[in-house]
């Protein structure tokens, strides 16, 4: 396996993000483990217990953020290429975007930012706010190189009133409890309650064998410089500074 991966690592880098994503996925599916797992046991990740034990501290920061809702951008404003999300009442206060730290939000909410630093190999983090009677349509995550983490902060209802489907598995959130899943499987979210649902949303690098882990980090580092990621960073900063949003 090492010889084959070394050959890939020496290939000339491409600027085509779709090609990179497809190559990354093929390598992980060939040489990784648990590639068909939808939901992962949060207890396997040592840092989860610390976040869950401090979820009320994070909730306090969220409550403060919600008092100044105009500083939380609609999800579609972060990246206009998310065309399927244009009509979804979904917004996100971003702390990290594909490895890019949003300094203004981290400094505004230092307690949450400090807890996020306790998560190894974090690439993206945000308060993900879905309004009542909302549905995020079925879609696929772009990278097999990460796993997605949700910590329930405001959960208006449990069960099928407020839930996430990942492929053929459905789970609901609980306040102060975690879900970890592979978002490259088709997934969608419902909030049938009139009240909002909020989770702390984070992406972490997928645990992989050592050589493949290095290659995965290279791929993720290249994605950090993509124009869409820079747009997300710029927009998140503008909202954090209460500057007017422009395309």
* Rounded average pLDDT: 90
Give the number of helices: 9
Biggest β-sheet, characterized?
7 strands, antiparallel
Low-pLDDT stretches are 2-15
Q: What share of residues are in beta strands?
A: 25-35%
Our measurement of the CA-to-CA distance between the termini, rounded to an integer number of angstroms, reads 45 Å
Q: In a few lines, what is going on in this structure?
A:
With 247 residues, the protein is of the alpha+beta class. Helices cover 35% and strands 26% of the residues.
List key phrases describing it.
four-stranded antiparallel sheet, seven-stranded antiparallel sheet, 247 residues, alpha+beta, disordered N terminus
């Amino acid at each position: 396996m090492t010889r084959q991966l070394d050959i890939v690592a020496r290939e000339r880098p491409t600027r085509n993000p779709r090609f990179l994503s497809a190559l990354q996925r093929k390598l992980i599916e060939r040489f990784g483990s648990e590639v068909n797992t939808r939901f992962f046991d949060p207890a396997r990740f040592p840092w989860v217990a610390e976040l869950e034990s401090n979820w009320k501290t994070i909730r306090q920061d969220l409550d403060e953020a919600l008092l100044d809702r105009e500083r939380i951008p609609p999800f579609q404003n972060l990246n206009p290429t998310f065309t399927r999300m244009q009509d979804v009442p979904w917004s996100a206060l971003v702390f990290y975007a594909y490895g890019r730290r949003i300094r203004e939000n981290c400094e505004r909410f230092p307690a949450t930012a400090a807890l996020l630093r306790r998560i190894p190999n974090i690439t993206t983090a945000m308060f993900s706010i879905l309004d009542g009677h909302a549905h995020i349509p079925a879609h696929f995550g772009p990278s097999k190189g990460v796993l997605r983490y949700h910590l329930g902060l405001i959960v208006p209802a449990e069960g099928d009133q407020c839930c996430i489907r990942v492929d053929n598995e459905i789970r609901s959130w609980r306040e102060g409890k975690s879900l970890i899943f592979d978002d490259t499987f088709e997934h969608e979210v419902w909030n049938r309650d009139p009240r909002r649902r909020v989770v702390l949303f984070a992406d972490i690098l997928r645990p992989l064998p050592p050589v493949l882990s290095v290659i995965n980090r290279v791929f993720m580092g290249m994605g950090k410089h993509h124009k869409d990621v820079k747009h997300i960073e710029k927009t998140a900063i503008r909202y954090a500074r209460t500057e007017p949003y422009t395309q």
